[in-house]
Amino acid sequence: MDYLPIFLKVRERPCLVVGAGKVAARKVALLLRAGARVTIVSPECCAEVQSLTAGADVTCVERGFQPGDISGMVLVIAATDDEAVNRQVSELAKQQGIPVNVVDNPGLCSFIMPSIIDRSPVQVAVSTGGASPVLARLLRARLESFIPSAYGRLARLVDEYRQRVKRRFPSAGQRRYFWESILQGRVAELLFAGQEDKARAALQEAIDDTSDNFDTGGEVYLVGAGPGDPDLITFRALRLMQQADVVVYDRLVSQPILDMVRRDADLIYAGKERDRHTLSQESINELLVRLAKEGKRVLRLKGGDPFIFGRGGEEIETLAQEGIPFQVVPGITAASGCASYAGIPLTHRDYAQSCIFVTGHLKDGSVDLDWERLAKPAQTIVFYMGMYSIPVISEELIAHGLPPDTPVALVQQGTTPQQRVYIETLASLPSLAQRHAVKPPTIIIVGSVVSLHSKLDWFRSGQQGQ
Ligand SMILES: C[S@@+](CC[C@H](N)C(=O)[O-])C[C@H]1O[C@@H](n2cnc3c(N)ncnc32)[C@H](O)[C@@H]1O
């Protein structure tokens, strides 16, 4: 190792920053976050530094650097654009054994600043030893996405209960096993879901439990997988995918997303294709209950958002009735995903002030919708499951007053490399769908916003439509 990674306590201790430009401002802000008493020496201060100093524990000395400024400091940072001053600060600090950092000049530093992921009290520092700050920042961005923002709260909770757990489990091995089960189990999940009271109660319950079978209670995560592009799932969805024991998934969940599930999790396919439901909704509801009662962490993975035409509400109603803990993770719904990837803003100041999501699902051969409310000017309508009702949609919207030349888009397999976008008018919608043999999953977007596609189309899928 070229450097020794350490975390330095600077709370209420004097630290010096020489220079007061934008870079210095970032260093001052960091020192203040760590509770340091900061002195800034610089003939003039930029606006950022001035705004930081208001009300904070900062002394501003408006003049050039003098050797005496260093004495008594526990840490020094030089961030001026004057090489000679930076060098002088570095040499003086080193002579006095005070850790010194000179911004963008590793040769003059006795310590370097890492990129930080701050979930205080949990902190992760990334360093490339000064070789590539950009690489360190990229690594940091990756880590940020894997470390839930609530880790800090989790660490504080653990700290609070540490002594109690020590008394309850005298052996270090037992304690480690206990904490592993807590930190990867329901207590952590409750905390991440913002249910701190329940997390505390569950933790206390686990401490009081004399059976020593830690955290075997099953639960269900109802998770939205988005419309297809695996990059569109949420951090929380990804984390839960990697800790579930069983995954019950729908047809709309794409293979690249399933590939991100924990390798040894059991995968259960639940359907559903139109008229070919692999499992009935009731069987799915019962399956989730049964698996959770067996003590499993069950991930119910659905395309798009579980609460938008996803019957997610029904599934968790059954769980609630059975007293099974669950949480819901939203996903990007097909309308948002497909519209974005087709370059069609669903609302736009000049074209549409409202947007309606409806299902075009056929019931007994007809579509039961309030056509009058749908056929309004300056409104975008997105039809889910509308493939088989295309003739009805076109006919009814025109009959209820929408101009036959209203632009319409069909977006098939939106957000995936197979995405296709077909655009024409309301009147020609049925022949458009027929000509291209459009297949599910497809959404239909109706409204003048569709005309923006020609200008805003940006996504290059494998096969372009039109
Ligand atoms: C049962 S609904 C589920 C909707 C899902 N819960 C959501 O929020 O997107 C299925 C319909 O969503 C639409 N859909 C879902 N994913 C799609 C995609 N990638 N491209 C186009 N349409 C999609 C289709 O209209 C499909 O018939």
Which features characterize this protein?
466 residues, alpha/beta, five-stranded parallel sheet, binds S-adenosylmethionine
Biggest sheet architecture: 5 strands, parallel
Mean pLDDT: 91
Order of strands, widest sheet:
3-2-1-4-5
Number of helices, counting only DSSP H or I runs of 4 residues or more: 17
**Uncertain spans, ≥5 residues at pLDDT below 50?**
none
* Count of distinct strands: 17
Distance between the termini: 57 Å
Percent strand equals 15-25%
Secondary-structure blueprint of this entry?
Blueprint: E1 14-18, H1 22-33, E2 37-41, H2 47-53, E3 58-61, E4 75-78, H3 83-95, E5 100-102, E6 115-119, E7 122-126, H4 133-146, H5 151-168, H6 172-183, H7 186-192, H8 196-208, E8 219-224, H9 235-241, E9 246-249, H10 255-258, E10 266-269, H11 281-293, E11 297-302, H12 312-321, E12 326-329, H13 334-341, E13 354-359, H14 371-374, E14 379-384, H15 390-399, E15 407-412, E16 420-425, H16 429-435, E17 442-446, H17 453-456
Parallel strand pairs: 1-2, 1-4, 2-3, 4-5, 8-11, 8-12, 9-10, 9-11, 13-14
Antiparallel strand pairs: 6-7, 14-17, 15-16, 15-17
Helix pairs in contact: 1-2, 5-6, 7-8, 11-12
